[in-house]
Amino acid sequence: MSQPIIALDNINVTFHQKKRTINAVKNVSVHIERGDVYGIVGYSGAGKSTLVRVINLLQEPTSGSVVVNDETFFKADTEAGAKTHISAKDLRNRRRKIGMIFQHFNLLNERTVTENVAFALQHSSLSQAQKDAKVKELLALVDLTDRAEQYPSQLSGGQKQRVAIARALANDPEILISDEATSALDPKTTNQILALLKKLNVELGLTIVLITHEMQAVKEIANKVAVMQNGEIIERGSLLEIFAQPTEQLTKEFIETATNIDKAIETISFQPLVQNLKSDEVFVRLSYVGDTTDEPLITGLFRDFNVTANILYGNIEILQDTPVGSLLVVLSGHAEQVKSAISTLADHHVEVEVLKGGSTL
Amino acid sequence: MSQWFTQTFPNVVYQGWTGDTGWLTAITQTLFMTFWSALFGGLLGLIFGIGLVITAPNGIAPNRALFWLFDKVVSIFRAVPFIILLAAIAPFTKLIVGTQIGTTAALVPLSLGVFPFYARQVQVALAEVDGGIVEAAQAVGASFWDIVFGVYLREGRSEIIRVSTVTLISLIGLTAMAGAIGAGGLGNMAISYGYNRFASDTTWVATILVLIFVLIVQLVGDFLAKKLSHK
């Protein structure tokens, strides 16, 4: 296995306030592989911002170890124990290879778009002419060439975030940290920014750490997901694993925000068809991941078992080029045959959850 | 016209234009005091103001001891009424400029009188610079001085001009009080040659001249603050 580009181990971040101690991050370990788009999801206050700030030491952990690109930035076994800390000068140099974008863009208001991007290049070894060319190239990349001489106050939110992305990419970083970067944007702009991040990930091989409370954003571009709550990672895995088999309640809640399936179940339950479910009918939810969808299972139910499937609602997501679906279906037929149909579905890795009826099964 | 002026403002004319008690001398003295004490007091205030922001607990170089020092020095100097400061630091003034009376001597208490006021104003102005912008600068590897000059002073530029205007106006007020230690200027003209000699025309003309100074400072300050702001 390759060495992770970011290895956070046993990270604790504790804030001491006047009379209380806040454990913002509790013994968290995260390893992020080169080329990952790693989504960290959680509600505000979960500690996700604090955790990612540890990567470039904008937030120094109380204890734990931070290794980026095989270089130890920080290591301390306990709060009082001996600390290894990268020198301030080296840290500044390394930070230039870790781009960061923020929810509120954090652009320099008194500088033009060009100057904002150039600010990140002031310690670069490039000549002035090369820097100018670099800024132009970056602005072309984020499609802001015609805004070069404007000030941030003259730009829309999406444009500001694109300036911030250009600034973050100025020193050709290998890592980009996105701290709620789309949370202040409207859905359309959010998708444009996410598409841009995905493009950077694919074309430049940029490793992206995406923290957000919007599962939708994670769903669009992440390949791995960690869910944070109260300073701890409660669940993690590939995007598919998390979406297909969430175990924690919070994870399920987040997924629900992206799929709305629970809301659909509630709405459909009130429809006459489901309200007046006949004795030989059963209202079920079918969930499946991937290959299963290639087989005409629903047709097969009728062909093989004489069971009709009335699809009331369907939600199929393509995550990481793999379909993940949920169908709300009313199955009707002979009890025995419905039973066989359900077990056949299960054999094909379709999860069947009976929502109403089926007392005879 | 000239005869009307002589009759209406006899005392103003009596003071003359040049000479120790002349109007031009008073104006020059006021400008001299304002300029140099604004320069010294301003620099000192700027250093303390920036120091307060960067050594604060949430600053870029938190330092409890330095912050405490900056804070206390500013608070103590601000607490002393200027007219008392003038007298209290007389020996110190003598040490620095060799005399404790006159226009040059007034520069010491004026600078020390205005700097804590300015320091607090600068502190407030710079505190308005969004912490997120500072963090973003740190994230692109900006150094300490990049952040002081490139972020704080650059982003706070317009606000600093605005508070400088306020400070400069109150400094003009202080120069008038410095007349008490024989510093001259328009304040001295208004009090010593006007009020004390029942020459109200002199008082009025001196007042109007001070008002004109204040107005010019205000207009220029507002213009610059607006021109340099892109928020």
From TrEMBL, chain B:
Location(s) in or outside the cell: Cell membrane
Family: Belongs to the binding-protein-dependent transport system permease family. CysTW subfamily.
UniProt cross-references to InterPro entries, sorted A to Z: AA_ABC_Transporter_Permease, MetI-like, MetI-like_sf
GO cellular component, one term: plasma membrane
Membrane-spanning ranges: 33-54, 66-89, 95-118, 163-184, 204-225
UniProt keyword Nucleotide-binding, yes or no: no
Sorted UniProt keywords: Cell membrane, Membrane, Transmembrane, Transmembrane helix, Transport
Pfam families for the chain: BPD_transp_1 (PF00528)
Protein name: Methionine ABC transporter permease
Family annotation (PANTHER family): ABC TRANSPORTER PERMEASE (PTHR30450), D-METHIONINE TRANSPORT SYSTEM PERMEASE PROTEIN METI-RELATED (PTHR30450:SF1)
GO-annotated biological processes: D-methionine transmembrane transport
Lipid bilayer topology: Multi-pass membrane protein
